[in-house]
Predict the structure.
Amino acid sequence: VQLQASGGGSVRAGGSLRLSCAVSGRTFSNYAIAWFRQAPEKEREFVAGIAWRGGTTSYSDSAKGRFSISRDNGKNTAYLQMNSLKPEDTAVYYCAGDLYGSGYGILNRYDFWGQGTLVTVSS
C-alpha cells in the first residue's frame, strides 16, 4: 500500500490547514489511518488516528479540541483538519496505515508510511 500526504504549508498562529492522505494499492477501508509528526531534533509523536471501521478516533492531548481526523472510503483518502494552529505544531506530518487497526498511537503498529508534509506555524 502507498500513502501520500499533502496539504502542508506555512500559516500564522491561529490559522488552519487541512492535510490529506491519499492511499492506493490496497483496500483503503481495511486500514486504520493515523497522523504522526516529527519536529526537528524530536521524536516522532502521535497526533490523531481513525479506526479501520466504526469511525472511532483517537487524539493526542495537544490535538484534542483543535484537530479533527476523518476518512472518506469512497475517495481512499484520510484528512486531518488542523485549527487554531500554534508555533509548537511546526513539524513534518506523516500519515500511516495499520491493517485492521484501531487508530491508536502505537507507532510500531503502523506498517505503511507516507513521505511527510511540512507544516510551519509562525507566531
The mean pLDDT is 96.
